[in-house]
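Render this sequence as a predicted structure.
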Amino acid sequence: MFLVLLLAAAVIIAGVVVVATGRGGELMPAARDLPEVRYRLRTSADVSVLRLPLAVLGYSEHATGSALRAIAVLLAEKDAEISGLRDEVRRLSDRPEPAAAPVTISKPAEQAATPDPVQRSDGPVPASQAVAGGPASSA
């Protein structure tokens, strides 16, 4: 019996040495039994409600990789849009502004037709003499 255990231990140790030196071959990656998930993220709200599927030891590698690629595409699109808008703002701010036309203030037609209550036909009345009923009389 002792000889069988000694022989089994020698085979196990030899197998470990072969595998440790790299001659034992490689394990095949496990085939996915779930379909590939495609994430269509367009806004930050889509990213905030994203829930990744769990695997035995954490998150599913394929789903996490797909989600990270979708987030990277979203960020690249947003960065390109921001860069374009900044270039447009820079282009518009470098353009000289057109000269402002002089502002003229004119009275509307109905105000021009009504006479000013403070003026008389013989000339303007000083503000101290003007009252609502007419010129003040002095005694």
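Summary. The two ends are 149 Å apart (CA to CA). The mean pLDDT is 78.
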